[in-house]
Structure formats: C-alpha cells, structure tokens
Amino acid sequence: MSELLSLDFMRQALIAAVLVGIAAPLVGVFLVQRRLSLIGDGMGHVALAGVAVGVLTGHAPVLTALVAAVAAAVAIELIRGRGRTSGDIALAVMFYGGIAAGVVIIAKSPSSSPANLTAYLFGAITTANQRDLWVFAGLALVVLMATWLLRPWLFAVANDEEYARASGLPVTGLNIALAVLTAVTVVVSMRVVGLLLISALMIIPNATAQLLGRSFRASMRWAVLVGIVASVGGVIVSFYAETPSGGTIVLLAIGFFVLAATSTGLVARARAHQHRRAERHDHEHGPECGHPAVAHGDHLDYVHDGHRHAPHEGHYDEHDPARHEAAGHHGGDHASHEDRDQAGHEGGARETQREGAPQ
Questions:
Q1: Predicted TM-score of the model (pTM)
Q2: How many Å apart are CA 350 and CA 353, to the nearest integer?
Q3: Which domains, ranges and CATH numbers included, belong to the chain?
Q4: What CA–CA distance (Å, rounded) separates 276 from 334?
Q5: 10-34 pLDDT, tens per residue?
C-alpha cells in the first residue's frame, strides 16, 4: 500500500475515485426513482462527440465534452417536456447520434488513433493530470452542492411528477437541473470508469442501497458508501492486478450488489420461516368474537382451538405461546419485532415521502 501512495499519479487517481464515488450515486438515486437508469449511457455517447471535438480542435476534451453533454441534457428534457416525441425516441437519437458524431469527428483529427478515445470510453484514471483533477474536483463540488440543495424538490418530482406539478413546483426546471447534473457527473467520471461504464456507477450502488436501506436518506448514505468503496477499491485492485480501472470498479460494484441481494434474501427467508400465518380464518377476531384475548407485547393475541392468532396487515399470524411467553420476560415479542421489520419496507414509501417532501 505504501508503494501505491508513494506514486503521484496513484494519489491523484484515488482522489478522483473518491470524487466520482460520491457524486455518481447521489445523482443516480433520482434516476433510479424515475426509471431513467440508462440515461447516463446516452449522455456518455454525446460526451464522446464532445471529446472528439476537443481532440480535433486542440481544446481540452473535458470542457468540450461538458458543453456537449449539458446541451444534450437540456435539449432532451425540452423535447420530452413539450411532448413532441417520446422520451425513449429522444434518448435513442441522443444515443446513436452522439457516438456516430464522435466516430466521424475523431476520424478527421490529424492525430486520430484508437488510443485517443480508449481512455475516455473505458477509463484511464492513471492518465489524469493535475489540471484534470482540479476540473473534476470543481465539477464534483457543483454536483454535490446542487444535489443536496435541490434534494427535497428532486425527490418530490421523481416520486410523483404530476402531483409535484399540481403543487406548484417548477417541474420542467427541476427536470432540466437533474439532466444537467447527470451530464456533469458523466464528464466528471469519464476518466475514472469511462463513458461506456459511467451509468453503472450511478445505478448499481443505488440498486444495492435499495436492498440495505429502510428509508430514502438511509439509501442515499448506503449508495454513497458503496460508490466510494467500489471506486477506491477498484483503483487499488486494478493497480496490483494490472487490470483496467473502469472495468474493475464496475465489477466490484456488481459484486457488492450480488452480496447484498444474497444476504438480504437469506435474511428474508429466515424471517419468513419464523413469521407463520394462521392457516384458515372463517371469521374476524375481535372483542365480540367469543375467543379469549391475551395481551402480548403491544397487541392482543386471540386463543383459537389451542392456537394464538395475532391480526397483522390483513391476515393472522400464528404465534407460539411457549416461545413468546419466554420472550416476554426479556421485554418483548420476537415475532412482533420481526413483523414490524418486515413491514418496514412496505412503509418505506410513506417514510421517504415524509423525509424527502419539500417543506
């Protein structure tokens, strides 16, 4: 590790990885909510055309890519908002037009070669110089500040665009702001993971966070944590394994997602095994049902043919008297805690709406 930190270009690479690991998931969380997971790919294709213009004209490719991506972001939202064509068609035009323009323009460059675009397509974080790092830091700071300040309104629009419009929010302006933030994030990340893989770093950490978080805020924290660990870990692994940094980062993020999906699935299965439902109920339990009621933690169980049944979200749970009487001495009901945990995700939307809604 000391060998890695002793190298200037690796220290710069690690700083760039942290910036991308924070910025990409913060923007991606709103794209996931709006089911626009692939828009980052479209922005990446347009940014490729901007890179080609920079290579052809001798200007900084990062800046020309930024101009192209932001212009495309505004255009796509205006077209989609006015309804002259569907968002899917506009996104497809942006996809193919951007990459086609990039290939044609780069072919006209006197110094054109595959290496000119490879670093931008697949990432080459170790080639980022001091100037690139300052540009990335400035752009990442803009993304972080804008995302944090606009978070309640972006959440409201992503959660229910029609309700947000009826509430008087500037929906079109917020949609354009999110598209511009996506474009800036693509440009910030293109030297780290590459234009063809940037969408993965915006989406996969958030997919993992949805499995781990119980609320919108918690999911954002998990997404940023996964993004940072995947980015920094991918850079370190790529240094020692001598693999491309972009692909290594994305594979590590996918590994975290698979691990989270497997572990949460096993936990859910274990809880489902303990969360037993009563087989049949031909009538409703209640004060007038004629069955004895037994206080059990924060609710009542009804004794029915030797079984204890507890009402829970439209069905009845089968509670084990012996197990719960033993658990009661420790201050609670094991199954009821599990029921509340299982219900946590079902109430997640209500909780996140309270947390994310603008005041």
A1: 0.68
A2: 5
A3: 2-199 (1.10.3470.10), 293-356 (no CATH)
A4: 12
A5: 788 888 888 888 888 888 888 888 7
